[in-house]
Amino acid sequence: MPNLNYDVPQDVPQDVPQDVPQDKLDVQIVDLIRKDRKISTEKMAIVLGVSSKTIKRHIKKMNNVCYVGRGFSGHWEITDDE
């Protein structure tokens, strides 16, 4: 069976739609958090049309977003020093 993956670039992140710029997704995540501080990563993924793993990966890279608390009782906080 031939290898059909030979022309796929290796540096392309998985689960990210090609038509959504990375910085635009970050802005959309922050907007969702500002609207609902208790929103889950799964709900963000559904609204934005990406996987929850993509949301978690972006949040991990964002220095101005953090989750305070544990599980259901916690909430998101955004610092404005981007």
Features:
single chain; 82 residues; alpha+beta; two-stranded antiparallel ribbon; 3 helices; 2 strands; 39% helix
CATH architecture of the domain at 22-78: Orthogonal Bundle
> How can the largest sheet be summarized?
2 strands, antiparallel
Globular, elongated, flat, extended or rod-shaped: what is the shape?
globular
Strand order within the widest sheet?
A: 1-2
The end-to-end distance, rounded to whole angstroms, is 49 Å
CATH class of the domain at 22-78: Mainly Alpha
Relevant CATH superfamily of the domain at 22-78:
Winged helix-like DNA-binding domain superfamily/Winged helix DNA-binding domain
Low-confidence stretches are none
* Alpha-carbon Rg, integer: 15 Å
Look at the structure and give the mean pLDDT. 80
Strand content: 5-15%
Fill in the CATH topology of the domain at 22-78: Arc Repressor Mutant, subunit A
Total strands: 2
Structural class: alpha+beta
Helicity, as a percent range: 25-40%
Keywords: Transcription, Transcription regulation
GO molecular function, one term: DNA-binding transcription factor activity
Domain HTH deoR-type: 28-71
Protein name: AsnC family protein
